[in-house]
Amino acid sequence: MNTFDTNIQLVYILAAACFVVGLHLMNSPATARRGNQVSTAGMIIAVVITLVLLIHDGTVTAVGWTVLIIGALLGSVVGLYSARTVQMTAMPQLVSMFNAVGGGAAALVAVYGYIHDESAPGGVLGSTSVFTVLDVIIGSVTFTGSLIAAGKLQGIITSSPVMIRGGRAINLAIAAIALGSAAFMLTTASLPALLLVVLASLAFGVLMVLPIGGADMPVVISLLNAFTGTAVAMAGFVIQNWGLIIAGALVGASGGILTKLMADAMNRSLGNIIMGGFGTGDTAIAVAVSGDAQIRSIAADDAAIQLAYASKVIIVPGYGLAAAQAQHGVAELAALLEDRGVEVSYAIHPVAGRMPGHMNVLLAEANVPYPQLKEMDEINPEFPRADVALVIGANDVTNPAARRPGTAISGMPILDVDQAKSIIVVKRSMGHGYAGIDNELYTNPKTSMYFADAKRAVAEMTAAVKTLVG
Amino acid sequence: MSTALVTDLTIFVLALLVGIEVIGKVPATLHTPLMSAANSIHGVVLVGALLIGLTAHTTVGYILAFVAAFFAAANVVGGYVVTGRMLKMFRRKAQPAPAQAAPAQAALNGQGQDKVQEARR
Fold first, then answer.
1. What is the predicted pLDDT for the residue at B102?
2. Distance between CA atoms of residues A115 and A222, nearest Å
3. Is the Cβ of A428 closer than 8 Å to some Cβ of chain B?
4. Range A159-167 contact pairs with CB under 8 angstroms and sequence separation of 24 or more
5. Interface ipTM
6. Which residues in chain A are contacts of B59 at CB distance < 8 A?
């Protein structure tokens, strides 16, 4: 390594240090924006030094420059446009798309490396290593897997699990083809083997995500995020670039941690999720709610009285709230109550949304101050002190049945909504949640059901509170 | 195993541990921006895409360079912009929203709403 190359690597390390500091500053909402700026600065440093390297080297052809510049410019425009226009409810799809293109780009770097070596005189495979192969496999799986995940989230592909007859056998066969050809690639320079690895991995990505249900999307996105990071790190090994290795490892760690948190929040193992579970009918054990269980329903005026004269209200939002676009209405109702001196906070379950932390972003967008957004462990001890728990669009994560063994959701960490002095549940009907079981919270004597669309219910309650306290 | 490979592996393992340490402290409130930030960081693969240009002299090479540069640039630019946009929304105190923001949002929200099933979690 000559001095120039060494200096270049040092600059990549500087960029990587910016990424670490940027992520570190994400540990508080107050510093997070600065974190993003530091991280952006690191990225600019990495890209600029790469351009310096390309110019210094002088072997990039005119066509090469044209191709790179036009490709990067078009990509930037597409990225910028989607980032500016995306709705916050559609964030998971966008993140999935970025996973797809990131993984795809990483795979292409390795594919190019292989082809380039293969076409070199004598077909030398000096730099083809296990990393090249891993990069191609993980990157390709991530590419199609993330596209399918985005399609499911957007509703282009059905969000219910798609089971293919003999799917597991097909998956195993495809994995065997990919790994077999990969092993062959390592020993012999062979373009057909590379092609086979790419195609088998692409197919595997599709078949891996198709059988996974909509409720498991937070886990899937996190997992694919970890895959992308790993693919980028492998690309770093292939081109011997420390910047890529460090950045990829950071993202791999982040994705891995989030995957574990999400899986724990649903009390399900990763294997169980990948193999398909909820909504497939084979795990749901019906819990009979005794026939004489009474359901109390409530109207806007009564709900308003309870809310307006409470001293502490905890709002429990689920994805149903976002699906009904009621987050702005809820924020307005909460602000109204706060003006009356009611203490309002939000209890956010880790899987309330379609990706980790999704609900927080949706509420932040609706102008809810972040100190009111409470994590499950933080808010659970506060439920006994709450006069009213207002559940909007959340179901399984509030079901006390999770505390008993023998139900489909047994052992899943839940919000202790049933500990509140009074509970109001806004729901369109008595329909089941993803787990397909009755929610025992609804038959609790302290619970009143408010049957309406979340947006309408919130508007009615807000109007009623206004008339009441005029 | 070459020295270079050992160095690379050392860096990889240490970076993984640093990542676990740093990211484990991020509160759940910020998990979506965190994932989005991580997303932008893996856009550093743009460096790899650009480096293809060093040796690309064939049509196949040019095509791969183009697609890789396109993908990676979309990843980087989109990732950072959307992360910034999200983080701007996190406020300590509620602020009066700009007057025209609400109707614009309502119009946007109207699109594709029927696609969204009633979520039950």
1. 43
2. 31
3. yes
4. A159/A213, A159/A214, A159/A217, A159/B117, A160/A213, A160/A214, A160/A279, A161/A210, A161/A211, A161/A212, A161/A213, A161/A276, A161/A279, A161/A280, A162/A210, A162/A211, A163/A211, A163/A276, A163/A280, A164/A207, A164/A210, A164/A211, A167/A207, A167/A211
5. 0.89
6. none
Chosen for mutation from B42, B54, B108 (greatest number of chain A CBs closer than 10 Å) is B42
| pLDDT computed for residue A118 by the predictor | 61
Give the model's pLDDT for residue A128: 59
Classify the C-alpha dihedral A383-A384-A386-A391 as positive or negative.
positive
> By C-alpha distance, which of B114, B102, B91 is closest to A360?
B91
> Tokens 């959340």, residue?
A394
The structural domain count of chain B equals: 1
Which of the following is catalytic: A117, A339, A377, A396? A396
CA distance B38 to B76: 10
A396 is catalytic: yes
Residue B68 counted as domain residue: yes
* Three-state SS at B113: helix
Model's pTM, two decimal places? 0.87
Average pLDDT on A78-105 reads: 95
**Model confidence band, residue A1 (pLDDT cutoffs 50, 70, 90):** low
- Confidence at B96, pLDDT banded by 50, 70, 90: low
Integer Cα distance of A346 and A334 in angstroms: 10
Q: What digits encode the pLDDT tens for the residues A110-159?
A: 999 888 866 554 444 555 578 999 999 999 999 999 999 999 988 888 87
Condensed to tens digits (0 to 9), the pLDDT of residues A298-313 reads 989 999 999 999 999 9
For residue A29, what pLDDT is reported?
92
CB of B6 within 8 Å of any CB in chain A? Answer: no
- Whether residue B117 is predicted with pLDDT greater than 60 in this model: the reply is no
pLDDT band (50, 70, 90) for residue B43: very high
Nearest Cα of chain B lies from the Cα of A393 at a distance, in angstroms, of 6
How high is the pLDDT of residue B63? Answer: 95
Mean pLDDT of A24-36: 94
Q: Does residue B24 fall inside a structural domain?
A: no
Closest CA to A95 of A282, A200, A226: A226
**How many residue pairs bridge chain A and chain B with CB atoms within 8 Å of each other?**
443
Q: What is the largest CA-CA distance in chain A?
A: 86
Contact A387, A340 (CB under 8 A): no
Task: Select from B6, B11, B70 the residue whose CB has the most chain A CBs within 10 Å, as the one to mutate to test that interface.
Answer: B70
Q: Exposed, middle or buried by CB within 10 Å (0-12, 13-18, 19+), for A421?
A: middle
Query: For position A123, what pLDDT does the model report?
Result: 45
As to burial, measured by CB atoms within 10 angstroms (0-12 exposed, 13-18 middle, 19+ buried), residue B78 is buried
Which range marks the domain in which residue B82 is found? 29-92
Q: How many CB atoms lie within 10 A of CB A38?
A: 19
B67 lies in some domain: yes
Q: Is A58 exposed, middle or buried (0-12, 13-18, 19+ CB in 10 A)?
A: exposed
